[in-house]
Amino acid sequence: MVNIGNDWDQLLEGEFDKPYYQELRKFLIGEYKSRTIYPSMYDIFNALKYTPYSKVRAVILGQDPYHGPGQAHGLCFSVKKGVPQPPSLVNIFKELEKDLGIKPPSHGCLEDWAAQGVLLLNAVLTVRAGEANSHKGKGWESFTDRVIELLDRRETPMVFLLWGANAKAKASLISNPAHMILTAAHPSPLSAHNGWFGCRHFSRANQFLSRQGLGEINWEIQEEKAEGRA
Fold first, then answer.
1. Which residues, including other chains, have CB under 8 Å from residue 212's CB and lie 6 or more apart?
2. DSSP assigned state of 5
3. Over 60: is that where the pLDDT of 194 sits?
4. What is the pLDDT of residue 226?
5. Which helix (H) or strand (E) holds 138?
6. What's the CA gap between 65 and 120, in Å, rounded?
7. Are 83 and 108 a contacting pair, CB within 8 Å?
8. What are the backbone dihedrals phi and psi of residue 141, each rounded to the nearest 5 degrees, phi first?
9. Does the pLDDT value for residue 185 go beyond 60?
10. Does residue 227 carry a pLDDT above 70?
11. If we measure between CA atoms, which residue out of 190, 188, 144 comes closest to residue 163?
């Protein structure tokens, strides 16, 4: 039984009993037993755990988790502290600096964003080691589409940041005029120069939230505190 630990539990009640999810669960049990799968099974739902439904102010949609050792921990584009920043995340921080003058942090953990109401959701929540998109089409899309539909129903406005073709395809699920949709190229080095750099999504999101009286997001990532200091 999946337990998120916040208001998502009530909203998603019954979702985990649906046939598509039961099939997905069987698939995942086999995958985790026989292969190396990222993230850890205990981190799969971290995006929902870290950002309750009622607290969401912005949604960043990713494709699927990083597939390198130690990278994925359940938040799209984020890596654990101590893990080198992947190229897409490096480009995210470059745009953030151009947009708001925020210097890139020394680590790539985006938990500070999640704590402020930025839902860091991948369309597919698991992946085989070294095999991008290997869990595509297994059922996760139905689950995350449901999450997006629930967010769209909420009356309190939020910003959807859709980066790349896969994320942009989710725009059809968002029909509530209260919300703002921002689209751009994916921050991957393959596409970043075709519309990612210069999108200014961070300042534009804050301008929208400020107009709605919801407060701006502090996009600056806090550095790790040095140990042993008073």
1. 157
2. S
3. yes
4. 47
5. none
6. 11
7. yes
8. -60, -35
9. yes
10. no
11. 188
Q: How far apart are CA 100 and CA 200, in angstroms?
A: 8
Amino acid at the residue 127 = V
Query: What was the pLDDT predicted at 166?
Result: 87
Active site residue 64: yes
| Token duo for residue 33 | 């037993």
Q: Assign 225 a pLDDT band (cuts: 50, 70, 90).
A: low
Q: For residue 122, which phi and psi values (nearest 5 degrees)?
A: -90, 150
Q: Is 88 helix (H, G, I), strand (E, B) or coil?
A: helix
Q: What is the pLDDT of residues 66-91, one digit of tens each?
A: 999 999 999 999 999 999 999 999 99
- Between the alpha carbon of residue 43 and those of residues 20, 59, 125, 126, 193, the distances in Å are 21, 18, 10, 10, 32
Q: Any idea of the CA torsion for 162, 123, 95, 178, to the nearest 10 degrees?
A: 30
Give the CA distances from residue 114 to residues 17, 56, 78, 221, in Å, rounded to whole numbers and listed in that order.
27, 9, 10, 11
* CA 211 to chain CA centroid, nearest Å: 24
From 9, 64, 99, 152, active-site residue: 64
pLDDT in tens, 103-117: 999 999 999 999 999
With contact defined as beta carbons under 8 Å apart, do 24 and 140 qualify? yes
Which of 149, 196, 198, 200 has the alpha carbon at shortest distance from 176?
149
What are the tens digits of pLDDT across the range 155-168? Answer: 999 999 999 988 99
User: Would you say 127 and 134 are in contact if contact means Cβ atoms under 8 Å apart?
Assistant: yes
